[in-house]
């Protein structure tokens, strides 16, 4: 029995601190390495099912630590990106990747259109509908939410070390990213604007989908995962980044009154 | 008891012909003048609750006639725009308009943030989640859907007659709009590109929300409502417009193979 035959399933987004008082809405698309039983092991050994190809280690812990400091809402995805990467549109190769870094993902090779549609309906569509609901509720109430997506990246990429520690990535609207970059200069971190990825790598889907249509200030953050490898390190990184985000937001022009 | 206290309500989008074989997905945000009882009469007399301020007369009939000719899916909203205009973001003044043309809408004046959020959750969020689900299912299956939103406008605006009969409106991506405009030259209709409205009037929210993030070809069509005032007129207009849409789509470069 294929997954599609067992559908419909629906994995809603997890929403923490929805009543948070700040304008920040934090998003963690790669929060979980959970592989629901219905998809089996995708043909991967356990170590790979818990490695960076399955999730962004440290990103959820850091996101929670930031949410507490900023009194922000946090929306995260409950399913491993091995099943569906919620930061990719369904036609992007990485949405249900057949390979990640040097590893083949056997359970994703040659998916039928029906299985692709079933995973999209089960994971991607509910995640983005639930995130959208959080965003539009705030807009309807007269707030101007600020979208910050939080990711981590590996210290090594195809065997080469990465120098950058804190990457700040923007799409078409670069206001908040440039402000975060400016406020990061004394952070003690090696910062990179549009490093180690950029919108040209098609990694800004959530920003395009959730922030740009509403004109919301937005940024994608990438933290090198060796710097957030323990709960203590996550907290320490949040101590560094929360004031940067606060100052960056304060440096933006006030939102236009709406409605 | 306010509406917010009676929430949560959820008015899903109506989806017709979801298995349609063409790439067209037709959208009619202003299909219905239905005012669910929970919102009362908004302080309007019955004639205004059935007038253009409440819906786009003829747009749904024309959409259905086009869907049959094109074998297209059709997604339409079940609630009057007097409650929530699904072609507006929650912070746009027209989302829950206090005025429309020369008429005040008493039931929309001074809405609390909670009532604005409740209407957004009841009408706007489910409509766009359901439309999104139709779109991403097609993308996941390897199709490249084409979004066409269908509207009607009044022959008179603040007492002045409008000359245009068929308006073709685009947002940032003008590929399909220009193709439709080119193919309309021999239609016998007075055509206008970005008439009687344009993106500068903030009328392209659905295109921005549903088509641009996925790079889908898209266009907004506006038909003068005196030309689609009867079922026969709707069918006759569909006879004119369906071949134009088909030729316009055929004139576009083939979509990039994806995923």
Automatic annotation (TrEMBL), chains A, B:
InterPro entries: N-FG_amidohydro (IPR007709), UCP029730 (IPR011227). One of its GO terms (molecular function) is hydrolase activity. Pfam families: FGase. Keywords: Hydrolase. It comes from the Bacteria. This is Putative N-formylglutamate amidohydrolase.
């Amino acid at each position: 029995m294929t997954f599609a035959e067992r559908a419909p399933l629906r994995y809603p987004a997890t929403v923490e601190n929805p009543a948070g008082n700040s304008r920040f809405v934090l998003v963690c698309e790669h929060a979980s390495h959970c592989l629901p039983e219905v998809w089996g092991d995708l043909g991967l050994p356990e170590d790979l099912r818990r490695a960076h190809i399955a999730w962004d280690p440290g990103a959820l812990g850091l996101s929670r630590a930031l949410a507490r400091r900023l009194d922000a809402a946090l929306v995260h995805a409950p399913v491993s990106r091995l099943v569906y990467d919620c930061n990719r549109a369904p036609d992007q190769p990485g949405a249900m990747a057949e390979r990640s870094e040097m590893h083949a993902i056997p359970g994703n090779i040659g998916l039928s259109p029906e299985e692709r549609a079933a995973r999209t309906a089960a994971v991607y569509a509910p995640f983005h509908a639930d995130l959208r609901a959080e965003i539009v509720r705030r807009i309807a109430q007269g707030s101007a939410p600020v979208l910050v997506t939080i990711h981590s990246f590996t210290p090594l990429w195809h065997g080469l070390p990465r120098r950058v520690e804190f990457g700040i990535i923007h799409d078409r609207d670069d206001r908040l990213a440039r402000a975060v970059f400016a406020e990061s200069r004394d952070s003690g971190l090696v910062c990179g604007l549009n490093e180690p990825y950029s919108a040209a790598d098609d990694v800004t889907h959530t920003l395009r989908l959730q922030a740009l249509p509403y004109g919301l200030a937005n940024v994608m953050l990438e933290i090198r995962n060796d710097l957030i490898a323990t709960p203590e390190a996550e907290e320490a990184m949040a101590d560094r980044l929360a004031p940067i985000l606060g100052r960056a937001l304060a440096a933006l022009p006030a939102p236009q009154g709406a409605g």
